[in-house]
Amino acid sequence: MTSKAEWLRATLLATSLAFTITGPALADSAPDAFKVTDFLLDNGMEVVVIPDHRAPIVTHMVWYKIGSADEPPGKSGIAHFFEHLMFKATTHHAAGEFDRAISDIGGSNNAFTSYDYTAFHETVAPSALELMMSFEADRMRNLILTDDVIKTERDVILEERRSRIDNNPQAVLDEEVDATLWQNQPYRIPVIGWMQEMQQLNRTDATAFYDKYYRPNNAVLIVAGDVEPDTVRALAEKTYGKVARGPDLPPRIRPVEPEQNAKRTVTLADARVSVPSFSTQWVVPSYHSGKPGEAEALDLLAEILGGGNRSRLYQALVVQQGIASNAGAYFQGTMLDDTNFTVYGAPRGDAKIADVEAAVDAEVARIVREGVTPSELEKAKDRYVRSMIFARDKQDSMANIYGSTLATGGNVQDVQQWPDRIRKVTAEEVKAVAARYLVLARSTTGYLLPQQQAGN
Predict the structure, then answer these.
(1) For residue 259, with 0-12 CB atoms within 10 Å meaning exposed, 13-18 middle and 19 or more buried, which class applies?
(2) Nearest to 210 by CA among 88, 73, 42, 114
(3) What does the pLDDT average to over 70-90?
(4) Taking a C-beta distance cutoff of 8 angstroms, is the pair 400, 8 a contact?
(5) Fewer CB near the terminus (10 Å): N or C of the chain?
(6) 237 class by beta-carbon count within 10 Å (0-12 exposed, 13-18 middle, 19+ buried)
(7) pTM
(8) Virtual CA dihedral for 7, 392, 117, 133, nearest 10 degrees?
């Protein structure tokens, strides 16, 4: 179980292109072999089937449209806490029985919580798909939540916070930067929760959360692998279809960010840090919240500016100037609300962190001032596509991209049409989003420093 799937958000859109861009070639020789099927059960649960017959395995995922950003005030961490509770006993199965059943057949399973969704997944042989559906459908509504269960698992998540956040200087800084970058939006609250609020979570909180959000009409089922849509439909109706629909939930409308008009900095000095580093972030639109074409342009801007060893930042700071051990940029476009665009770097040798930061700022300013060339943009698109095609061999990536898209307000067509939208982005559009959003006067910069640099 993971509390914050940063790796997932960073790779979801990349993975989507890998699968959709190669779709037509596959379809020419086998029209229905890779066709994605999407349908609704009578109780409102959406089902997506992604056939992939290259290996006799199947990835089964249930995505709930509930994440940490949906938590009630004062109850931070309840979404992640409940992810843990979903592995406890139900009225039909003892605690640990689900895990043992998967282990006995050589499968794997896990779960993760993010700001916008919670997902549970298993990878097994196709013959075990009905068993996975039966277990997941059971724990969707039949958990046994006692005070003893709550106390034991609450101690687990408190220790998880101590070991993964409080004992990690980078994680502590990340929390402080998030709380500074976001002035009003709930992304400012850590997914795992604030310690003092986690300590107060109780059975009443958990039961209310379960009853409100863990319903079939608030969930998406993704099945990818060696399966046929008709088989999946029949099994889903037999298992999930028996779960009663819950009350309709209101739209996921969250607090909106005010206009930001100041540059903010956060500094953390720690004796465990040996090499200083920094990151600068801006609030920008996501694929869900932005105007048409904005998120696509931001994706390509991140690729050109800092997406790899051919990017401007890497070439300028690491290769040519030799002042940075690393430098890059990324855009987390798969959020339900606005998101962040980040540049980062760390010095090398005798270089100072101020030198690296100034050089990164200069590269950002150059794009804002001069834009990118059409040739540079086309090469970036090609690199983007080629690098993502390799992700096509990861079956679970297919399930991840469709699940995250549907859990944040998108649909199957959004995934399938994304490559065409990327290809239509112009150099002028990339320059425009850089000029509009990457304004240093509205940025938040975090510094992670060795203890002796605290006063510098």
Answers:
(1) exposed
(2) 88
(3) 98
(4) yes
(5) C
(6) middle
(7) 0.91
(8) -130
